[in-house]
Amino acid sequence: MSDRILTPLILGIALCVGCSSGETEIAPQVSQSETSSNQLETPVPENDEPVVASSVGESGPEPRRGPIVLGSSSESAASDTKRKSAESPASTEDLSRESVFEAVKPLQILMGSWEGKTQKQFGEFSAVDEPEWVWDFLTNKNQPALVMSSDKSPYFKKLRLTYAPQTQKYELTAEHEDYGQRQFTGEFIEEIRDVPGDDKKLHRTYKLEFTQVAPEDDVEKWQIVFNQKDNNRYLMEMSKKRGTAPRFTRFDTVASQRQGTSFALSDTDYGEKTCIVSGGLGTATVSFEGKTYYVCCSGCSAAFNEEPERWIAKALEEAKKKP
């Protein structure tokens, strides 16, 4: 066959093959720099949230992410707490007041009138002291305290003993006309124990040590230890140090003996004479809505008259806990 016949035939076969396979696009050449740029622009997930399959078919056009949560769970909880606190601000105060009361209550063995005598002599005689301890719920309602007053004490005319939940330490404020006010913080150096006495009753013992923290510029710092020997006797051991001295030195001990009957908690069931406020032995009465209740001191009487419903409800709760 001649070349003139073969050439058109070959061209025709090539054209037919192209028609059967469709149009062919030639991909443009991409430079290396353009490829790197495209890779950087590819979106990258910002977190490790699980990918949720699309609802359109099992292999939908594009996966979608789960619902977006505004704010973390901790932020949400914090917001919830603030909202609840704003709704009931008194609840926090009540909890604080109760925690202080429960911490100080075991020390109410101090309640009542005492007769004290110093070991140190003033002139030819020891000083005689007549301290009286009562509850104080009203001066600072969130800070119940045991308060001592004494006209004859050579060291303190007034003591206020309470507890600070924030530091988990006891606090003592001492006042005297000669030196003003001193502040102390305290901890137990011997924990509270109830031990049998010669009278076959349980007697409370402990040692609670207070160290002066203010005024800070005092040349002489004091330390006081309440050494409870039994229900009817305690020692107040007085020590001091000057400047940067390494330790405190005892300078006096005031021994106090209870006057009359114990006001404090013991193993005795006081029955109807239980103080509606402190739980100690009631020696006076108060009334509310025609009913009479016992109280152990003027402080408890004032507290009851201020909030009678609160103390009655608390006493009922305590009664339910008893076997």
CATH class of one domain: Mainly Beta
Reported CATH architecture of one domain: Beta Barrel
Q: What is the molecular shape?
A: globular
Strand order of the largest sheet: 3-5-6-7-8-9-10-11-12-13
Output mean pLDDT: 78
Radius of gyration, CA atoms, in whole angstroms:
41 Å
How many H/I helices? 6
Biggest beta sheet summary: 10 strands, antiparallel, barrel
- The low-pLDDT segments are 5-11, 13-79, 81-88
* First-residue to last-residue Cα separation: 125 Å
- So, the CATH homologous superfamily of one domain? Calycin beta-barrel core domain
Determine the structural class based on helices, strands and strand pairing: alpha+beta
Secondary-structure blueprint:
Elements: H1 3-21, H2 32-41, E1 51-52, E2 64-65, H3 73-87, H4 89-104, E3 112-122, E4 125-129, E5 132-136, E6 145-149, E7 158-164, E8 169-176, E9 180-196, E10 202-214, E11 220-230, E12 233-242, E13 249-258, E14 284-288, E15 291-295, H5 298-306, H6 308-321
Antiparallel strand pairs: 1-2, 3-4, 3-5, 3-13, 5-6, 6-7, 7-8, 8-9, 9-10, 10-11, 11-12, 12-13, 14-15
Helix pairs in contact: 3-4, 5-6
